[in-house]
Amino acid sequence: MxxxxxxxxxxxxxxxxxxxxxxxxxWAAAMLPGALRLLGVAGAGLSFLLMKGLxxxxxxxxxxxxxxxxxxxxxxxxxxxxxxxFYTKETVSLRVRNFETAQLKVNDHAGNxxxxxxxxVWNVEDSARAVFEVADADAFVRIQSExxxxxxxxxxxxxxxxxxxxxxxxxxxxxxxxxxxxxxxRVAKAGVHVSEARISHLAYAxxxxxxxLRRQQAAAVIAARQKIVEGAVGMVEMALKLLAQQGxxxxxxxxxxxMVSNLLVVLCADRDxxxxxxxxxxxx
Length: 284
What we know:
Elements: H1 11-31, H2 34-50, E1 54-57, E2 61-67, E3 70-75, E4 79-82, E5 88-93, E6 97-100, E7 104-107, E8 113-124, H3 127-132, H4 137-155, H5 172-187, E9 192-204, H6 206-246, H7 253-268, E10 278-279, E11 282-283
Antiparallel strand pairs: 1-4, 2-3, 2-5, 6-8, 7-8, 8-9, 10-11
């Protein structure tokens, strides 16, 4: 089934013609004798019957026409239109719509339970499919979108497990594109176009949220310590090099080792250092 657009006559022109026929029929029924009177009554009745073919098409809206169960076509021309009065005319909105899925609880690719939700923006492109292929296009898109979100969440981890790995939290644009493609594939049979889909809610499930927070904090501490150690080693290397170049003091290997040890302790400690001053051979 595929949409077939048809152009119906202007309803204003049809209304003028039908009112003229009705007026002529009423005049004939009142003024003419015998069979002509019956003809006037029939003409007036027929004109009122044909007026049932008038219908209104709003902007960004389509009317799907059927004739005793057979698809005739879709009228997209906005305004007052006229078609066969025996056609059934079902309204289909072509406007852009959006909704937010429920916050779903899913296991990610690493097996961690997470909560995830998404916002989906869509519109009907093929009115025939939206009417005849699915029972309710709006409900169909919502259910299929939630299924797509579940599928996507199970394919990727919440956080990257290795360098460059795509994850739900770190690659938002890539995940949004994959989610839109996943939903589009599922709802194509309903004549629906998905213009945007992106994650609106993402969090660890309540039962593991505290443990994952502690793990993130530990990872942050380790990363910070690595930076501190790298910086401290560079500073010690620079200090030894400057002392040697400027000849401030000559240190043997044992003294260099002690100096390196002391500097690393001072630079890598998480508290302020308390210096010991050597006066008269005794440190104070």
